[in-house]
Amino acid sequence: MPQKNAPMMNLDPFRASAPPSHTAMRGWHFLACLVLVLGFCNSNFCTSNLVAEEPYKLFLEKLRNERLFDLALVYLSDLEDEPNVSDDFKAVISLERGILLYSAATQMTAQNAQRPVKLDQAESAIRAFLKNRPQHPRRGEAQLSLGNLLLTRAEEAKLKAGDSKQDIPDAIKYFAEAHDLFQETVKELAGILEQIKGARTDANDANKVAYREQLRGEVRRSQLLAAAAIENRGRSRAKTSPDWQKDLETSLTMYNDLYLKEKEIVGIRNYALFYRSGVQEALGKIDDAIDGYQRIADQEGVDSLRMLQTQAVTELMKLFASQGKFQIADDRAERWESQLRPDERKAAEVMTLKLERYKVRLVWIKELEKKDKDDRNASKLIRDTREQLRGMMRISGSHQDEARKLLAELGAEPVAAKAADVPKVKTFAEALETATERVQRGETSLLEVSGLEERIADPTITEEDKKAKQQQLVDAKESASVNFEQATQYLQTSLRLFSKKDERNQLFEARQKLAFCLLKQQQPWEAIALGEFLAMSNPGTENGLRAGTIALAAYGELFKTEDQTLRAQLIDLLGPFAEFLLATWPDAEESATAAAALVQFSLINKEWSKAEAYLHLVPTTTAAGANTHREAALQFYSRYVEAKRASQGETPELQAARKLATNSLAKAVSGLKKEAIGGPEIESINYLAKLYLADDQAAEAAKLFDELAPLNMLKEKPDSLSTRAMMDTYSTALQVEVGKLKSDAVDANSVSQKLSELIGLLEKASEKDATGPQLLGGIFVQLARDLKEAVTSTKDVGKRKKLSEALIKVTSEAGKSATAFGTNYWAADTLLSVADELKNDAGAQSAFTEASAILVKMLAKGRADAEWMQPKGIDAQVNLMYARSQRGLGKFDEAVATIGSLIESSNTLHAQIEAAKTYQAWGDAKDFKHHKTAIEGAKPGKNGANLIWGFSKIANVAGKNPNNADLFYEARYQVAHSRYKFALGSQPQDKTKLFEQAAKDIQSTARLYPGLGGPEMTTKFDALLKLIQKALGQPAVGLGRPATSPQ
Amino acid sequence: MKTTLQRYWKSCLTIASCLFLTAALQAQDKVYPIQGAVASGKLIEITRDVITIEVRGTNQKLPVAEIRKVVFDDEPSGLDRAREMFAQEQYTQVLDELKKIDTTTIKNPLIVQDIEFYRFYSEGKLGLTGTGGDKTKAKDGLLALAGKNKNSHHMFDLSALLGDLAVGLGKPDEAARYYGVLMSSPNAETKALAVYRLAQLELGQGKTTEARTRFQQLSGLTAANAAVARLKSLAEVGSAVCDARDGKPQQALDQLKQMVVKYDSTDQELFARIYNAQGACYIALEKPSLALLAYLRTDWMFFTDAESHAEALYQLVQLWPKAGEPSRATETRARLVSQYAGSVWANK
Predict the structure, then answer these.
(1) b vs e for A573-606, b when ≥16 Cβ sit within 10 Å of the residue's Cβ?
(2) Could you say which of A495, A525, A566 has the minimum Cβ distance to residue B301?
């Protein structure tokens, strides 16, 4: 079998050289279809009442013919439970399912994860049928299907191995299994056949006669495929190894037997001969191979063999060429091509023949030129081949790419020859025809250009070849230019010559071609002028849309400008045209593209309202449209984020930006199906969820995550997203879960369980990338804030208790199990925040205990590994947190000692505040005198100054730096606050003086700094002063200012 | 009173009848009406309004405006081919055909004049379309022809072209005179053409009130045939231009856009005028890019009417720099000057 470079053939599953796309699987698929056809014959045979087919069978067949395999499978499942379905049909449901599954699998690419699943299901369904129906008339068909399935697996294994020169064990295994199965089939069916052959079947019993014929066919097919399996098992082995030789020789014998024995079934006989020739070729028996191919090619009058004959001619030609008989090879191909029928001329087999012929010619040309650089035959061959390849380029199909490469190999035609070719035209039709020819030439030249550019960019090209190709590239470009220029002139002439007797539709054609030529000649304004006119004059038609596409492409050229004024003009121009396109061809991708361009340009220019308006024009039903909505929505989201950063609180602008982003993202995700989401879609989902959360629509965010299940996608395809995107998704999921906590209906325990799970996933994801830990830190800081806010906003005592317990549990578990610093830090911080929030609640102690345990572990780890805590200097913060936890647990001495040590090595305002707060807490909890220390400081150093400053000095220091204004007011407040507390505990004789001092602390601050650090602090000062005034027996008038409300 | 031409004609006929009696009996001139059967017989009299032909002993009078062509019995073989080309407005081919005819051997002066008419007319048309003809040569030729035979059945066509050539050569007063000749026709269609041409002339001179009156006059006509209907369409464009010039460009634009949908774009002149008018509206509305596109349509699709094409080229010269393409302005200017050297647009 000529596997080395043989084209794919309908009945040749062993020659796939392309990846196992459904194209590559065509051979198998064909077999499957063949079997399917037989299957229906069998059904007819075995169920005599099927002359009038049941509607469900017809429907199933229709689905199958339309290749709607999945739908057919669903339908089949429904039929299983249907009482009206005949028992005969129910008996074959398993087989039908297997065949459908196999067909569905062959339609999928090799990369499709569902393909192996479907193949497995198909195999078990067919095997189940074979097991449960030992006497069924469709057994042969089932066995053939199963064999084909095994061949498919074998072929996949081969493709996976690439160009391996070694044995491919999986392929060998599957080919062997397939061979055994086909042999068994032959044996089994031959046994049945024996019982009904000849006179044993009544010649008048049409059904039985038909069954006998069917069996005969199945036996032969099985024999052919058994031989093919052996042949390919050999070809899956190391070439020229003894096993390779043995398998090929065995298959040769099998093909030969089949060819010699089978006289009636012409397809089997000739395929056997064709395959035999391939094996002979591989074994070096070239003359025998040629003889075989010739026999096939020379047969006359058998229509069903025409494409096999084309393949045989292709092989024949290649063999002649390999012997240096180029002329004979070319003549053989030429003769066959001249006999092709019109309906055969575009067949894939014919395209392959032509491509192979031109490849042979290239070798031939080189041979001729080697002998004589100016060989005239070579020149003629180049000219002819170039024209023929151009002809091929005009037929769409997978051959075009190779044809383009071959054209590039041949090089471009000298421009001068084309430029001089300017026939005189007298009529519109002549002018149009001449122009059309030039347009086609121009297009071909452009294809040559791209082929040559590819070739030049190929790193394996020699310097000499590169130079030659560069010259050819210049020629090709010039050729394109000359042709389009000439075409333009002829088209203008045609418009001038147009008269009423000419075809009106040809006038459109001429104008459209003119628009196209102008576009190709870098005259985009003209192309727009013509394209728009034609589109608008032919609304709703395919031609009109094509003209519109030319105009759009021209717009694309013009939009390359950097000139902002011109861009604005172009947007104004394109707007109405895009609207027209959308109104006229609402479902066309071109229309969506036009509107999308407008959206994009408006976004670039930050014209949000324009972009929003244009976005309404873009349908979400097309792929391009949906993409535009998503892109725009992301831009709107970015704008919202920017606005949020710049904004002070909830401004109307920020709300408007959020609304726009939310609406557009909601629209962008509205059409998504959870089975079909990928990275870009997940990004949109995350952003939308965040927007919902920012808008207090936690339920919407949760619904979005439940419906589209982005976490499932991450689970199934963990490598499909970047670390950042993955972490962002987990982070958003965490926020969504936290959002749920605010809801009354939620079960806090289940949420906390989910939070634990997500934290684990998040940490795992962060390990994938160097930037992961840093990202983790940021995410956790935000999470801590969210959690604290969740607790704060929960007013119901019972719920709050439940919630905080859940949070403490989740957070401490996360902190204990986590290895990443960021997670530990977050856990401790969250626990401290929650504890602060709970204050005197029972849960607070639990939170402080858990936080303390985590912080102890962190400090120990930090001492053992200096690099563990990142960023540098964060250890001071960790120490302060530890001191906070000690303070919370009533271990004031230890807390002060911790902070004192920290201040000794690194004195900061924050550390001083924590120290003073510790004394305050100590004063509240145990001894009121510590309030005095909180004000005045403690631990005098060698110079007599206190190591711990107290709020008084904190205020003085902070007051010197305007950046610390908040701290200043806070410290001033705390001075008065501690003084008040100190007074409360003092002896009665000291109380009044101390209360007065406390009041003075506030009043003097208010006098000197009337703003008092803003409304919030003013309220605090005011409330405290009222308490003091009350303690002094004075009217509680506070600051005596009108009430302020915090903004 | 018989014209010189008719006298020649009669003498020719007499000579023919004397010398070639048999042939004369069989000889037949032919008058092809636009609609109806061909009249074959002996041409009796030709005037600018009516042609009289004797058909089987009976004189038939056929209005010139309803005649497609007149074929002379003894004319050279290529002449009728040229006439057919002429009917299809393939003027280059007309000249090619006529070049093949040796006029020195032609005895019938009517045939010679007929040839000259087609030659100079084609020359003039080509000159106006900027495709090789010499406008001045055409004008001189046609004037000489008209001078020699004031009753030629081609007189109104000839006068209309002389008017067009005068416009093309930047001589509006002369043009008005030539167009005025058409007003003397008894045929409504010819008169309507005169009204339209004069209105156009006035529009070109900035006399919108006068032009509008004429356009309205045309709009009020009943479209008796396709030609009058076409003139009404052209007048509709003219009215829109008047609106635009009178400070109502948006209103004019709306009308012009409807015309694009309403009319057949195979009428190159009509569409050239529509798009030129659209361009003018866009300029007035300060939308130069849209104006550019409108004039480009005239330049690339509807360029056969010389006057409109020259105008479009002129406007493109002004508009290209605004689209950031000054070199295109230079190139367009070169085209304007080379194709329409004598036109008012090239000399603006």
Answers:
(1) bbbebbbbbbebbeebbbbbbbbbbbbbbbbeee
(2) A495
Other CB atoms closer than 10 Å to residue A436's CB: what's the count? 17
CA proximity to A508, closest of A523, A491, A528? A491
In a mutagenesis test of the A interface, which of B274, B296, B332 is the best target, namely the one with the most A β-carbons within 10 Å? B296
Does the pLDDT value for residue B4 go beyond 50? no
Best mutation target among A496, A506, A508 (most B Cβ atoms within 10 Å) is: A496
Name the interface residues of B facing A (CB cutoff 8 Å): 88-90, 93, 129, 131, 260, 265-266, 268, 287-290, 292-294, 296-297, 299-301, 303-304, 323-325
Residue A554 near chain B (CB below 8 Å) = no
Helix, strand, coil percentages for chain A (3-state, nearest 5):
75, 0, 25
Determine whether the interchain pair A526/B300 forms a contact, defined as Cβ–Cβ distance below 8 Å: yes
- pLDDT bin (cut points 50, 70, 90) of residue B333 is very high
pLDDT at A92 over 90: no
Q: What is the DSSP letter of B44?
A: E
Residue A956 contacts B, CB cutoff 8 Å: no
Cα of A462 to nearest chain B Cα, Å: 41
Residue B243 distance to chain A (closest CA, Å): 24
The shortest C-alpha distance from B164 to chain A (Å) reads 19
Count the alpha carbons within 13 Å of A135 in the hemisphere toward its beta carbon: 0
The strand pairing partners of B41, in sequence order, are B29
Least Cα distance to B246 among B256, B235, B238, B258 occurs for B238
Residues 6+ apart with CB under 8 A from B198: B176, B179, B180, B214
Q: Which residues of A touch B293 (CB under 8 A)?
A: 525, 528-529, 532, 573
Averaged pLDDT score across all residues of chain B: 87
Q: What are phi and psi of A264, to 5 degrees?
A: -100, -45
Q: Hey, how many other C-beta atoms are within 10 angstroms of the C-beta on A965?
A: 16
Tens of pLDDT along A686-708?
889 988 888 878 888 888 888 88
Give A454's contacts (C-beta < 8 A, 6+ positions apart).
A405, A408
Which residues 424-483 on chain A approach chain B with CB closer than 8 angstroms? 426
**Tokens 């390990």 map to which residue?**
A767
Residue A655 to residue A645: CA distance in whole angstroms: 13
Could you tell me the maximum CA-CA distance found in chain B, to the nearest angstrom? 75
Chain B residue with Cα closest to A567: B323
Which of the pair, A201 or B73, is modelled with greater confidence? B73
pTM over 0.80: no
Beta bridge partners of B30: B40, B71
In which band, very low, low, confident or very high, does the pLDDT at B293 lie, cut at 50, 70 and 90? very high
Q: What is the mean pLDDT of residues A270-293?
A: 93
Burial A21-36 (b: 16+ CB within 10 A, else e): ebebbbbbbbbbbbbb
- For residue A45, what pLDDT band results from cuts at 50, 70 and 90? very low
